[in-house]
């Protein structure tokens, strides 16, 4: 694990917690991230990012809450990192900046993979929590 990934893991919770109970702030973050996402430049991370967007959106709307708080904080932290123009490698540096973001998305995906599996099963069954 790279140095900036360790730093991310250490700091994600304090930043991400601001979004837990603020539906408008969380929704705005998701919109900003979706606007930034580019299938061509993200490659393999694209599908992972779309799944993270999906679970975050369903969590924010209250449709899906069957995820541990620590996992949703990790997802929010990864999305925050993704939208930040200046992180370990600034996004203004073509390709390298997005590769850095893709690495963090991959790390988040691996950390919450079991939660994402349950979410995918929930989506496939079409259940909505009430």
TrEMBL record:
<feature type="transmembrane region" description="Helical">
    <location>
        <begin position="67"/>
        <end position="86"/>
    </location>
</feature>
<keyword id="KW-0472">Membrane</keyword>
<keyword id="KW-0175">Coiled coil</keyword>
<dbReference type="InterPro" id="IPR010652">
    <property type="entry name" value="DUF1232"/>
</dbReference>
<keyword id="KW-1133">Transmembrane helix</keyword>
<keyword id="KW-0812">Transmembrane</keyword>
<feature type="coiled-coil region">
    <location>
        <begin position="9"/>
        <end position="40"/>
    </location>
</feature>
<keyword id="KW-0489">Methyltransferase</keyword>
<dbReference type="GO" id="GO:0032259">
    <property type="term" value="P:methylation"/>
</dbReference>
<protein>
    <submittedName>
        <fullName>Methyltransferase type 11</fullName>
    </submittedName>
</protein>
<keyword id="KW-0808">Transferase</keyword>
<dbReference type="GO" id="GO:0008168">
    <property type="term" value="F:methyltransferase activity"/>
</dbReference>
<dbReference type="GO" id="GO:0012505">
    <property type="term" value="C:endomembrane system"/>
</dbReference>
<feature type="domain" description="DUF1232">
    <location>
        <begin position="72"/>
        <end position="106"/>
    </location>
</feature>
<dbReference type="Pfam" id="PF06803">
    <property type="entry name" value="DUF1232"/>
</dbReference>
